[in-house]
Design a protein that fits this description.
By secondary structure, the chain is an alpha/beta fold. The protein is built from 9 helices and 20 strands. The chain has an 8-stranded parallel β-barrel, surrounded by 4 helices. Strands 13-14-15-20-17 form a 5-stranded antiparallel sheet, covered by helices on one side. It starts with a helix and ends with a strand.
């Protein structure tokens, strides 16, 4: 279907979210410590195995708030909600083997309806704002996923029309077994509100799984979400696009001497911190409504996706302090415009305060792998720079950064791979 350009722009574009409503974090049920992670994110995404609600038999009726074993979801999600978090749940239906789903239209509908009726914004608990139908359903064909999605989504709409519905991870075409081709959902636009994207900055895949910096044009890191944004604009205007997984592994341990991960290559702790924060900034400039980091905590295992935490054994990494500073600095601001993009490797993005029209912050950094220190001269920023500081890697106060302002309003500042924030008063 060809949409009129004026309508497309009206529906696809809208006010940018505040960064406090944009910066998300992936977590997992009883392992999550809401008080520990409040400084880094106020929106969280939980991996929720459907088997925990139905047992290993989809013909079972749910017993919310209890699991089949008698554990109360009130004890899991209740503290999160009390702490102030907004919760997105990805319902992993493939934790129940496919042969057990003997009547998907009825079984998936019943589960979706009961889940939304209890957990949804209008429900008994009001714990969950949005539900993703599937995470990375690699065991399902496109046709099987479409049937599961449609059936469960119809149940969710019946159970609580206010609950937002997201797809599983989608991509344009059959890129890998972990995403479904977004075209498999053609015709079902009324049943979802959000298109869901996973993206990682892989420089190479097996056996090293090495990742590059987020700006690297040789990776698909920014290309995959942009392809879904473009598809949305052409086929499903008005729908949101979320990145619900991205991240970098950093471990203090060397790779194993033998086995599948013997040639694994991770990032340093400093690189992880720099790349995560820069990724959030890059995503903020795109037509995305949220970005959830993978992962909240790790056990320092030098292998794929096993060292992606902001904490290591629940002790903050440098990335924890960097993201904390990002949220503290830009939480009440929303992306305004790009000032500099890949100008000899330099980037500068402007963010405007939610209510103080004269206040803005400019984030400046070198978008290269190693982020060599370089002096960058910015165009006139529309006000006076009153403060400048560099992203911290420790709990100490952020480093104050010197800058020079010329008579015509241009600003020169030395930057590297750790973003520098300039506070502007008009």
């Amino acid at each position: 279907m060809i949409w009129p350009l004026a309508l497309l722009l009206t529906l696809a574009s809208g006010p940018k979210p505040l960064m406090r409503d944009f910066i998300g974090l992936n977590t997992h049920t009883i392992q999550f410590r809401p008080d520990l992670y409040w400084p880094v994110a106020h929106i969280v995404r939980d991996y929720h195995p459907v088997i925990w609600d139905l047992g290993n038999d989809p013909t079972n009726a749910t017993r919310f708030p209890f699991t089949p074993e008698g554990i109360s979801w009130n004890q899991v999600y209740g503290p999160w909600k009390q702490a102030g978090y907004h919760i997105d749940v990805t319902a992993m239906y493939d934790t129940i083997s496919a042969d057990k789903w003997t009547d998907v239209p009825h079984q998936a509908f019943a589960y979706g309806e009961s889940f939304a009726r209890f957990f949804g914004p209008s429900g008994d608990s009001k714990f969950v704002d949005s539900l993703e139908i599937g995470n990375e359903p690699s065991k399902s064909t496109a046709a099987q996923y479409r049937q599961m999605f449609e059936s469960m989504a119809r149940g969710v709409r019946q159970g609580d029309p206010k609950m937002l519905i997201a797809t599983c991870a989608v991509a344009l075409g059959d890129k890998d077994p972990y995403s479904k081709d977004v075209n498999c959902l053609n015709g079902l636009q009324s049943l979802y509100d959000i298109l869901n994207v996973h993206t990682y900055a892989f420089k190479s895949y097996w056996p090293t799984w090495e990742r590059s910096n987020p700006e690297d044009p040789a990776t698909t890191f920014l290309k995959i979400p942009q392809q879904i944004i473009d598809w949305r604009n052409a086929n499903a205007p008005g729908k949101q696009v979320w990145v619900t997984e991205f991240g970098w592994d950093s471990s203090t341990k060397p790779a194993a001497k033998t086995g599948d991960m013997s040639k694994w290559v991770g990032s340093t702790d400093t690189e992880q911190a720099q790349f995560i924060v820069r990724a959030y900034l890059l995503f903020a400039a795109m037509d995305l409504q949220r970005a959830y980091l993978f992962w909240f905590n790790d056990s320092d295992e030098p292998s794929l996706h096993a060292a992606s935490g902001l904490t290591r054994n629940f002790v903050p990494k440098p990335s924890f302090y960097a993201v904390t500073h990002l949220l503290q600095t830009l939480g009440d601001y929303r992306f305004d415009r790009v000032l500099v993009k890949d100008q000899d490797g330099a980037y500068a993005y402007k963010f405007k305060h939610r209510s103080r029209s004269g206040d803005s912050i400019v984030a400046v950094w070198m978008g290269t792998r190693h982020g060599e220190k370089t002096e960058v001269t910015l165009p006139a920023l529309g006000g006076k720079v009153v403060r400048a500081e560099r992203m911290p890697l420790t709990p100490k106060l952020a480093e104050t950064v010197p800058f020079r302002t010329t008579a015509d309003g241009k600003v020169t500042v030395e930057v590297d791979g750790s973003p520098v924030y300039l506070w502007i008063k008009n």
